[in-house]
Amino acid sequence: MIKTSTMRQADRWLGLPVCFALTAVRRVIDYFDYTASREPLRRILFVKLVEQGSSVLACSAIRRAVELVGRENVYFLVFEENRFILDAMGLIPPENIITIRPDGLIRAAVEALQAIRRIRALAINTTIDLEFFARSSAALVFLTGARYRVGFQAFGGEGPYRGDLFTHRLRFNPYLHTSQTFCMLVEALTVQGERLPTFDLEPVLADDLPPPFHASPSEVDQARELLKKASPGGKFQPLILLNPNCSDMLPLRRWPIERYTELARRLVCRYPEVHVAMTGGPAEGAAVATLVGQVGSDRCFNLAGRTTLRQLLMIYGLAEVLVTNDSGPAHFAALTPIDVVTLFGPENPRLFAARTVRNHVFWAGIACSPCVSALNGRTSPCKDNVCMQRIDVDRVFEEVCRIYESRRAAAA
Which helix (H) or strand (E) holds 344? Predict the structure, then answer.
């Protein structure tokens, strides 16, 4: 798996000259292309390689594409490890999900070329780039040879340069929720590309909920057995989940991990019936195990690295509350009945929060926050995430208690 930092460096130093060169190629093609007639939309391909949570926010855009060309004609290009959420949502036929395995830059480049060959063979004539300003995705969209190509353009220096590779060029609006932004990319297909970026259309609400996740009874039984084995006492319900994000992948978005330990201690002390499980990826297993040991309760146990992402969705369906930093799990959980407490800091919840009434957001909103956006390449000079540190344990604990007690009362 390619590191996030490596992907960003490659996107910058390789993507810049590639997009510049492809823009020159486009100029030549356009000069000799006299076919000005507009062909109908036949097949639509979405390109969203990374950030699995954003795929959930794209559900309204995918539904709109299905309205335009039919479900069997909607496709998605994504990294292999990120396809699971598309399968869980079920909005796109599984055979229409095209994947690239990012097992190193060379391997990823080879698989990208293979994906482009397949896309061309399918005669897909419309591509929509859901990456805000990634150069790699812009290049991929152009190389598919699609007649219509939709994406964001860096007008007047607003955002990183990615050449001039789209037929439908939009200006990125930093005041729209991401789900609305994705919908506008699809709606751009309903107007002549030459009219853009001026877009005489009110922002789409995109307030429809993501599809509920459905697991088979046998899968749910397996999830229950997994929880029984992970819990020292063999019991696991009522269950509250904490996702401390102990890896180095998103350090700015991380709530201080010792506060997760303190929160877990308070929960098992307040509610003698409650079990607390900490989740995370395989690389976080040891760090999460240390946190669990610091809690000092046999009703707190470690799930990090012990579940697949699909099993994690099933566990969400068996739990009451999830507490997590702003990351993929906050969006995955929107497919299940669980309530989520999401802790925001360097990004704006008005743009990126999960669209569900079961999502409860904390955001300090200090003067330097948000510092990460699509316009600055999702980077920040910050070395001290005060925005996350300003969220104290007392407030989060009180909110979790309120949600838990409300859910238990409703169930009773």
Answer: strand 339-344
